[in-house]
Amino acid sequence: MNDPTFANTFADQENQLKPAQPCVMVIFGATGDLTARKLMPALYNLAIQGLLPKDFACVAFARRDKKQEEFRQELYEDIKKYSRTQPVDDKKWKPFSEKIFYHQGNFDNHDDYERLKKFLATLDKQCNTKGNRVFYLATQPSFFPVIVEQLHKHKLVYNEKVEHERWSRVVIEKPFGHDLNSALSLQKHVKQFLEENQIYRIDHYLGKETVQNLLVFRFANSIFEPLWNNRYIDNIQITMGESIGIGTRGRFWEEAGILRDIVQNHLMQLMSLVSMEPPVSMGANAIRDEKVKVLQAIRPIDINNVDDYAVLGQYGPGYINGEEVKGYREEDNVDPHSVQGTFVALELFIDNWRWSGVPFYLRAGKRMAKRVTEIAITFNQVPGVLFKGKVDKKGQTLLVIRIQPDEGISLRINCKVPGLSALSIQPVKMDFRYGTSFGETPPDAYERLICDSMVGDGTLFARGDEVLTSWKLYTPLLEAWQNRPRTGFPNYSAGRWGPENANRITEKTGRSWRLV
Ligand code: BG6
């Protein structure tokens, strides 16, 4: 039987994408960075591909006073700058822009929601949107509870048990809470007003093609899965390096830091997809059940010996691509004595039958030498009886799943160097590249996710228990770091792969970080 939250995402019965349903999308925080850089370009690209519902409107809700035309003009500029498809097609831009409406309002103001309600009713008549709503919360996290409560008070979200003709969904941006307790209370709060299947907790990594391909790669090929366990795998390294710094987000970053911004969500999504058991179906809940199970099996970090498992770093000034860049403490809105982390390296273990004893090494950082996200799976060495001294440790079979950029998968294997002289063995690479095989740029993650929210498919969104399990793992570490003096920051120069002492995480067992 199909999972109730049936997924179209990977493949439904006919392998057809369900069409997005008529709706109005209301974006809260519509003058913010996320809306400009990601949400509006994604909507525009959906529009030009014909993937937006025919009956559609978008209401941009924000606090600033702005005229409709002024907002649309700003949008046009943003799309020129950030859309993945260029140049902007003016013929398609015009009808698209006419579906976007600016609504000035405060997130906690009764009258502003009443006005919104009336306006949405007018749009339903004008655009035939049938009362269906996607509310996208792209504001600062502190507004999430307020907005959800206001939506409920003004009957803008529906009780799905009673209403069958129309639907309302709420997309909540990350971070969902800032530790276990705050995530639990946010969860409790939103659950008073919404059913779980109305809540779409976004983690845009799940919208990436390469991330969706992880399950296809694992479960649609017969040769990898039999090896996918502690009998054949030596270690798994998940790296998310960014060459950019924290940009204009100093204030947010001072509160969040690397664990909250990147590890607790994006890296844990990658880790759970690469390590979970095969789900019973491709349904949303079946996949999410397996992700939660594996997250629950991660061994809690030993807080008494934190330094053996986790290293925190902060970038100082340095060079990226030959250009001089500031250190974290010199960035805008950052305390000049800040001890916030911009790099982290971790060793985790999954205490289950499949993974017992296999270290998972995770690292993420800002201002690394280059932008790269990848999962590297190193297989065990062969028994050293035949080619003694010829196959060195560094030549272990290695599978690299490149999430971005240069999306693809490569397998490093050992090969005989051709020739008549003494036997020599050298590692060579078998390489698959998305660009070469498919010849087109994959859609942006937000396109996929926005589309899924209009279709009603929650597979690529995080379920409440997933988020909470991840917070449960990281909250003790956050507290341990908070409760002891952190000295010696900054401890890596911009343009390097984190501090020197990150090496001790892998070196204590004779392994090393992969050079990416
Ligand atoms: C966001 C983080 O969630 O992901 C940013 O808040 C980070 O700090 C970004 O830069 C990375 O996303 P991507 O898609 O560029 O890898």
TrEMBL record:
Reactions catalysed: D-glucose 6-phosphate + NADP(+) = 6-phospho-D-glucono-1,5-lactone + NADPH + H(+)
Domain Glucose-6-phosphate dehydrogenase C-terminal: 215-514
Gene3D superfamilies tied to this protein: Dihydrodipicolinate Reductase, domain 2, NAD(P)-binding Rossmann-like Domain
Protein EC: 1.1.1.49
Domain of life: Bacteria
Listed InterPro entries: G6P_DH, G6P_DH_AS, G6P_DH_C, G6P_DH_NAD-bd, NAD(P)-bd_dom_sf
Record flagged with keyword NADP: yes
Name this protein carries in UniProt: Glucose-6-phosphate 1-dehydrogenase
Lineage: Bacteria, Pseudomonadati, Chlamydiota, Chlamydiia, Parachlamydiales
